[in-house]
Amino acid sequence: MKTFRKLATLSAGLALAFASLGAVAQAAYPCPTIKFISPYPPGGTTDILARLIQPGLARELGVAVIVENKAGASSNIGTEFVATSAPDGCTLLLGNNTGVVINRNLYKLRVDPVQGLAPVGAVASVPLVLYINAGIPATNLNQLVELARKSPGKFSYASGGSGSPQHLMGELLKLEKGLDIVHIPYKGQGPAMQDVVAGQVQMAFETTTVIAPQVASGRVRVLATTGAKRSKVMPDVPTMKELGMPDFITENWYGVFAAAKTPPALIQRLNVALNKILDSKEVQASLEKMGSSDVSGSPEAFSKFITRELPLWESVVKRSGAKVD
To answer: Where does the record locate the signal sequence feature (predicted)?
Structure first.
């Protein structure tokens, strides 16, 4: 009898525990609307990714999710906005390596993003491609290099802002090939691409997803990629490594962040929602078209990845001699 009584008591306790867990699981999200900050103008990969996962976040969390573009200062404005927001999960960032790990080596920031942000989860990791305006008489990298060498200071390359991977890749190209080409920074990759397409700037680096429509239209020509191996999206395009630059390997990565000190339980809830979104067939198809690697995982795994990235990008900044324009 005592044993049964103990079992009954235990069963009742377990029932209460599971009921409590169920109540927690069904608890309303702490705010009716989430501000989802894209720290760039519309048109670039960061903004595309924010809008790709926005409907899923709204569905999984049961709240309105509004993508808000806070562009400027090479993503520092939007990144700082989230880092200084209340740690309540109501303001999120679709951040990237520029705002989180690169800019701290180039700018005097009021808030160190590594300290001011809490990683929720990675979203995508995409190689860059070097592309040129279709009017430039070059069909490969060597021809472009020869043209630039014959006209020192006359060729320019665009980027979405000082300190962006696109900027640093341009500086590395100058360093590796001994070129005198001019950096033209823009407030976002969208405006940078528009001027290359228009012929006002000769070249730039961009992700495959953004540049693919312009390649298809014949307005630009892709010469190389920065991945460790050829992109499945553009398999005919050689890598920089294949073209004799073994250290010219990098990818743009993107992820969701909340303000530091956001409760761990809330970070976990956001991570579960994010991973469900990334596992959906629609989102997977979109990421595959971008040439993105599968980077979904836990907040802890994303945090460890960022820690490993810090010295790598610090080294790229030092090697390239990049400065804020």
So the answer is: 1-25
User: How confident is the model at residue 7, as a pLDDT?
Assistant: 39
CA distance 79 to 92: 10
Query: Measuring CA to CA, how many Å separate 65 from each of 21, 34, 80, 224, 243?
Result: 26, 5, 20, 37, 44
Element (H, E) at 208: helix 208-217
Residues of the chain with pLDDT under 70: 1-26, 325
pTM: 0.79
Q: How far apart are CA 289 and CA 233, in angstroms?
A: 6
- SS3 call for 21: helix
Structural domain boundaries of the chain?
A: 32-125+252-320, 127-225
Q: What is the CATH number of domain 127-225?
A: 3.40.190.10
What are 48-58's pLDDT values in tens digits?
A: 999 999 999 99
Distance CA 204, CA 131 (A): 6
Q: Which CATH superfamily is domain 32-125+252-320 in?
A: Bordetella uptake gene, domain 1 (3.40.190.150)
